[in-house]
Amino acid sequence: MPSCREISALVSKGLDKQLSLSERFAVRCHLMICRACRNFQKHSLIMRKISQAYLAQLGKSKP
Question: In angstroms, what CA-CA distances link 61 with 36, 49, 50, 54, 57?
């Protein structure tokens, strides 16, 4: 079973590129039993959406 540190690295990696099947499986299994990692994934996704919205807004405001 991968550690929380390994899973958080995979969650972060998965924000930028698609994980392999085995990596996705490891993340899903771990997230079923680990609330801290579920929270990390949730907050990472929220921060990604906020950052993208902010960058989109900056792009609209330039002349």
Answer: 37, 19, 17, 11, 6
| Nearest-angstrom CA–CA distance, 34 and 49 | 23
Instruction: Say if residue 7 is exposed, middle or buried (CB neighbours under 10 Å; 0-12, 13-18, 19+).
Output: buried
Res 59: pLDDT: 81
For residue 36, the one-letter residue type is A
- Taking alpha carbons only, the member of 42, 38, 18 closest to residue 30 is 38
pLDDT band of 24, cuts 50, 70, 90: very high
